[in-house]
Amino acid sequence: MTNTPEGSKRPITTSAIGIGLATGAYGLSFGAISVASGLSALQTQTLSLLMFTGASQFALVGVLGAGGGAIAAVLTAWLLGARNGLYALHIAPTLNLRGLLKPVAAQLTIDESTAMSIAHDHTATHSRHAFWATGISVYILWNIGTLLGALGASAIGDPAVLGLDAAIPAGFLALLWPRLRDRTAWAIAAGGATVALVLTPLTRSGVPVLASALIAVFAGYRLRDRT
Amino acid sequence: MIWAAVLLGSLGCYLEKLFGFILPPTLLDRPMIRSVAALLPIAMLSALVAVQTFGDGQSLVIDARVAGVAVAVVALLLRAPFLVVVLAAAISAALLRAFGVAT
Do B49 and A193 touch (CB under 8 A)? Predict the structure, then answer.
């Protein structure tokens, strides 16, 4: 460990910008998919500015686009966003925030900023720097990406012709992929998909995805002493 | 209706983040809370993949989206970045339709 923490912050900033650029590319596809799902460019941008958590945003527009209705879309987004609360609980002691910084940090608490903060938790200063640099970088570039994607997709026509309807499940798959780290994860993914497909012909659109959450609750209960 | 979903969804997702900074960190000592929150994205993202690949309203269909998702799997196995995965799926589905191979 070096005694000049200021100097060693630079590589963290560089990674944070790199992560922001990669996330900006996600934002581009989110913007395009959201508009293709029937949201306006303004509604799409509002999601990226206010909701700012990719999986929930994709889910909300995905469920709305499939005709699942507002209630199912909102509940799905909330359930997917629950993990951010867990991240916040985890990093709050390190960030040690007061006053107005809390609500600001809350908005920036996502997969990327949390992972970077934990990866650099050898000192609290580095951990905090990693959180803020990544959060701010991703926030800015995710929103720029969304804007470009939304404007781009507004300029083109039928999503099915362009294959954008295939981009939606591919996007969810890319979000799921890094989480499939062990057999438990694969089993839960298989369970979630099965529940959703079995229920699709039986329930109204939007319900199958919500019902898949029960698989997580059941498995979480069974595995509660193993994590 | 869409605006209501956008704003309510955003408000809830923000409050979830904020609660984490306000509530006591001892909540993390409850293994059930930890494991369920970690597993929810896996079950639900997988369900979303399934429904968005095969669902058409209340029916299940096989169309060009299946091929698009298969191409996405290959792209992910090749460690392609997100945008490439999504574009590969869209382009392959669009091409299959353009050539009349799939609907």
Answer: yes
Whether B74 contacts chain A with CB within 8 A: no
Mean pLDDT value across residues A183-189: 96
CA distance A62 to B51: 10
Q: Nearest Cβ partner of B90 from A166, A176, A208? A: A166
Report the alpha-carbon distance of residue A100 to residue A152 in Å, rounded: 36
| Residue of chain A with shortest Cα separation from B86 | A167
- pLDDT tens-digit profile of A68-103? 999 999 999 999 999 999 999 999 999 999 889 999
Cβ neighbours of residue A179 under 8 Å, at least 6 residues apart? A185, B41, B42, B45
CA atoms of A28 and A143, how far apart (whole Å):
9
What backbone phi and psi angles, to 5 degrees, belong to B23?
Answer: -75, 155
Q: Tell whether B77 is within 8 A of chain A (Cβ).
A: no
**Other Cβ atoms closer than 10 A to A83:** 25
Q: Within 13 Å, how many C-alpha atoms sit on residue B79's CB side?
A: 0
**CA-to-CA distance for A130 and A179, rounded, in angstroms?**
22
Q: Which of A22, A102, A175 comes nearest B81 by C-beta?
A: A22
Q: Does B37 touch chain A (CB under 8 A)?
A: yes
- Residue B5, CA distances (Å) to A43, A167, B1, B2 in order: 10, 22, 6, 5
Q: Can you state the percent helix, strand and coil of chain A, rounding each to 5?
A: 80, 0, 20
Question: Does the beta-carbon distance from B86 to A226 stay under 8 Å?
Answer: no
